[in-house]
Design brief:
By secondary structure, the chain is mainly β. The chain folds into 3 domains: about 90 residues, RNA Polymerase Alpha Subunit, Chain A, domain 2, CATH 2.170.120; about 90 residues, YbbR-like domain (RNA Polymerase Alpha Subunit, Chain A, domain 2); about 90 residues, RNA Polymerase Alpha Subunit, Chain A, domain 2 (Beta Complex), CATH 2.170.120.30. It has 4 helices and 24 strands. The longest helix has 27 residues. The protein starts with a helix and ends in a 7-residue tail after the last strand.
């Protein structure tokens, strides 16, 4: 019986020693940890804006029991500097350990960086016209006639130093490559960092009006003949020069005889001399700009071959 009681006492002592060791090393021993904590500038007045590259996080070095260290998280340790009294300029911030709340049993030993600076500016709003930026070229023979954007202006909010020098807002480039007709496209704005759109809060729509490119072309030394008579005739001069305007794709391949006709209408003219203009039949969508010469001498002869 005594031997049995002695064994129980020994077992209890060993068990207590193990439990004590676990508590001592798991809870009582000091541990260290490094945590990166985000910085939140929520207290900055609404009429101010932070420019440049503000500090986004700080590094915190802790010590304490392992169980307490394990309860720490970056989310709970977010650093919120007091900026309620800030004004435009450079704001110097010193981080105090008391500004960061830690649980009991955890010691904040070091903060990096302990000091930092913010560049703060006045925040303003400004209404600016919109302009569509384009890239590429339309299909051959076509050109951009007009460009529209709806709405035509936008109100932006941002740093005073930036918005004061802005005169317009460009869209991101609209690719017009190979287009041969008018089209519409939703397009975002190309605005600098730190600037926000106040209104209108909707999609911007660009309309690019494309039409055939109009060119002029001269045709020289064109032979001139008469039509609608059986009597012999002569024309002086018997060549002419014209200048035509129309779509580039039509004019570049246009040839006399195949694509247009030039003649003097002699219908109803009797023997003698006459002053006539040339008749010039051009393709649709082209127009005559100049004719040289404007008048021609036509001499109608009697038909001596009649009996």
């Amino acid at each position: 019986m005594i031997h049995s009681l002695l064994n129980k006492c020994i077992y209890r002592s060993i068990f207590s020693l193990v439990i004590y060791s676990i508590l001592f090393w798991g809870c009582g021993a000091e541990h260290e940890a490094d945590i990166t904590s985000p910085v939140d500038y929520r207290t900055l007045p609404h009429n101010l804006i932070i420019t440049g590259h503000p500090l986004k996080s700080i590094d915190l070095h802790f010590s304490g029991s392992k169980s307490m260290i394990m309860t720490l998280s970056a989310r709970d340790l977010t650093y919120v500097p007091d900026l309620t009294a800030a004004i435009a300029g450079v704001v110097s911030i010193k981080i105090n350990k008391k500004d960061i709340s830690t649980p009991k049993g955890v010691l904040l030993r070091e903060i990096k960086p302990a000091h930092f600076a913010l560049h703060v500016e006045n925040k303003i709003e400004k209404k600016l016209p919109l302009k569509v930026s384009i890239s590429g070229k339309p299909a051959p023979g076509f050109m951009v006639e007009k460009i529209y954007v709806e709405p035509s202006s936008v109100i932006l909010s941002g740093p005073e130093s930036l918005l004061l020098n802005m005169e317009r807002v460009l869209t991101l480039p609209v690719d017009i490559g190979a287009f041969s007709e008018t089209f519409k496209k939703k397009i975002p704005l190309n605005i600098p960092g730190g600037v926000e759109i106040v209104s209108p809060v909707k999609i911007f729509l660009a309309e690019v009006s494309i039409k055939e490119k109009s060119v002029t072309k001269k045709f020289a030394h064109l032979p001139l003949k008469g039509k609608n008579t059986k009597l012999p005739y002569s024309i002086s001069p018997d060549i002419l020069e014209i200048e035509v305007e129309g779509p580039e794709n039509i004019l570049k391949n246009m040839t006399p005889g195949n694509d247009f006709d030039i003649f003097i209408d002699l219908a109803g003219l009797g023997p003698g001399e006459h002053l006539k203009r040339a008749s010039i039949i051009l393709p649709f969508s082209t127009r005559l700009l100049k004719v040289k010469p404007e008048f021609f001498k036509v001499k109608i002869l009697k038909n001596t071959g009649l009996k």
